[in-house]
Design a protein that fits this description.
alpha+beta; four-stranded mixed β-sheet
Length: 605
């Protein structure tokens, strides 16, 4: 799932006695930042996961080589653990990266009581992990066939059913203690975004992985600003500052007309990170308890307020007066995201590429009433999607339109009739062209929101005489079944992992079928050839046309029913300082958050 994400160092202060107002301070143990996730985490192994929320947790504890500037809009990549931006050869094939000395992992018994410095070999080892068959890394597709020698290494590993981490790989090597090099097979122009994606390149230490083995996902040890202090699975996680975290200070590059970004920078610039002494993350799947926890000041931030409360909390997209009186702040941004339902192309009922199978998927898509989803379920907090990628990413053209979101019960019925999906036994529901029972199975969680979505799907399918049943399970369980290809239809929300349309188009690429992101298991040579051409073409009108051709193929074969692009609303109390929603949602923002204790209720801590 795309969704899945991305600080300069000031000089050392010579004498603490010389510190004046506004000078760097250590994280304050009295400052606690609390908020909730709507779904449970899956693992705290950065290379093992694909979901957005687990990635947020991991990105708080681990470091990728690059990051996105916290305040810059549009997004800007900057060095994170590197001394400078990667040096890229003129032909676009070779990346040379230099790790900044003096960065240390959090302490762990795996290090034998010694401080463990981050070195180039850690990044080489981390990226090699994606190729380990035992891990089944969801982001393998980001390097397979792309890093020189990866195909050969994978072939050896698959044959032996084990990965040899000591065997050299042509395109991935440490040149010295702090320098490593990546060589590509082709000039893949969006590859650089992987260096800011925790799932691909957040550094893990080999000693830690080898010590904990299959349980590494329960023992996160990184170089990031925070470390795990408490974990009650699927309920609550607590993080505290990593005592070994490098000296890093609040900075950013908001545009000159960016009043919000400029105000945050003016207030926070130069403060040592992280600023809070504790982060508490709660798993609250139902929207009402999550909202009540925020109203009761049990949470400091409501990250993506459910649109269920739109008319109550922000009627006409304005903060309700009762909330404004409490000093609550609100921000709304169009998300770099997409909601869609995928069809399993290997499923015997809805899968396949023959005309009658395509007709069934297109009829289902035509019959689903996205406008009702936006108006009734999302309370207007979304816009219809016309492409399998969102506005705001490279390659998006606002003038490009498709029939992806056409709603026509008449056309759906006509298609079904034309291809032999008719009601033969008079029960009101259609059978297959062979006269066999036809029942769609739609996967969803037990949440109240998904119950509403189920009801809309039921009404939409009843309108065209298609029987639909619902497979109910919790999110992590559905994710496992999806990875194994066991779900027929599942509606998801995908957040961009990079500011390029490739972030979604890659998950319809045939070789990525299965756990590597292509959950629909869509395989079509015509699409794959276009994708392979696009990924070695720089951002340009030519590449945008390739993206549009791929979109037309997606609409024609209908492996996805694209639904909406969401408008994301966040609210926070006046004591929360420095919050700005990351444009790439899976980026971690905790270290930039401050708590103004002078405004905080005295009973809260």
């Amino acid at each position: 799932m795309p969704g899945t994400s991305r600080r300069p160092i000031a000089g050392l202060v010579a004498c603490a006695a010389l510190l004046g107002p506004g000078s760097p301070q250590a994280a304050d143990p009295d400052k606690v930042f609390r908020y909730a996730f709507p779904v449970a985490e899956t693992s705290l192994d950065p290379q093992k996961i694909s979901d957005l929320y687990s990635n947020v947790l991991n990105a708080g504890m681990f470091d990728a080589p690059l990051k996105y500037d916290y305040l810059a809009r549009p997004l800007k990549l900057k060095p994170n653990t590197l001394a400078s931006m990667p040096e890229i050869s003129a032909d676009g094939l070779t990346y040379t990266l230099r790790v900044r000395p003096g960065i240390f992992f959090a302490d762990d018994p795996a290090f034998g009581g010694k401080k463990r410095e981050l070195v180039a070999e850690d990044y080489v080892y981390t990226i090699k992990r994606l190729m380990d068959p035992k891990l089944a890394a969801p982001l393998l597709a980001e390097i397979e066939g792309i890093i020189a020698g990866s195909d050969e290494a994978l072939a050896r590993a698959r044959k032996a059913n084990r990965f040899d981490y000591d065997a050299p790989i042509e395109g991935l090597k440490a040149l010295d203690r702090y320098t490593f090099q990546i060589k590509l097979t082709q000039p893949f122009y969006v590859f650089i975004y992987n260096l800011a994606d925790c799932r691909v390149s957040c550094a893990v230490a080999r000693e830690v992985v080898e010590r904990y083995g299959d349980d590494i996902g329960s023992h996160p040890v990184g170089t990031g600003a925070f470390r795990l202090a408490f974990w009650k699975r699927s309920s609550k996680l607590v993080f505290e500052p990593n005592p070994n975290f490098r000296e890093e200070h609040f900075d950013g590059e908001p545009g000159p007309g960016d009043a919000e970004g400029q105000a945050i920078l003016a207030r926070q610039k130069g403060k040592r990170l992280p600023l809070v002494g504790r982060v508490e993350v709660y798993i609250v799947e139902e929207v009402q308890p999550r909202w009540l926890a925020f109203l009761n000041e049990e949470h400091d931030l409501a990250f993506e307020v459910s649109s269920e409360f739109a008319n109550l909390a922000f009627p006409n997209n304005r903060l309700a007066p009762n909330l404004r009186k409490r000093g609550i702040r609100m921000a709304q941004v169009p998300g770099l995201d997409l909601t869609f339902a995928y069809f399993n192309m290997e499923d015997p009922l809805v899968g396949g590429y023959t005309p009658e199978k395509v007709a069934l998927r297109r009829a289902v898509s035509l019959a689903y009433n996205t406008k009702d989803e936006i108006a009734i379920i999302r309370k207007g907090q979304a816009i219809p999607a016309h492409t399998p990628y969102s506005p705001g990413v490279a390659g998006y053209d606002p003038d490009f339109r498709t029939t992806a979101n056409e709603y026509s019960v008449a056309k759906a019925r006509a298609l079904l009739d034309m291809f032999g999906y008719v009601d033969r036994d008079g029960d009101g529901y259609r059978e297959t062209p062979e006269g066999k029972p036809l029942a769609l199975q739609f996967a969803s969680t037990p949440s109240a929101r998904d119950q509403q979505v189920d009801e809309l799907w039921k009404r939409s399918m009843d309108d065209v005489g298609l029987r639909i049943t619902f497979k109910k399970a919790k999110w992590p369980d559905l994710l496992k079944e999806s990875n194994a290809g066991k779900l027929m239809i599942w509606q998801l929300g995908g957040a961009a992992s990079s500011p390029d349309a490739d972030t979604w188009l890659s998950v319809l690429y045939g070789p990525n079928a299965g756990f590597k992101g292509n959950r629909a298991r869509f395989r079509l040579d015509a699409y794959d050839r276009l994708y392979e051409k696009a990924r070695v073409t720089p951002d340009s009108p030519e590449r945008t046309k390739l993206y549009q051709e791929m979109t037309r193929i997606m609409v024609a074969y209908a492996p996805w029913k694209v639904n909406t692009h969401r408008i994301l609303t966040d609210m926070w109390y006046p004591w929360v300082v420095g919050f700005r929603r990351p444009a790439v949602q899976s980026n971690n923002f905790w270290k930039y958050i401050d708590i103004d204790l002078s405004k905080h209720p005295p009973t809260a801590h």
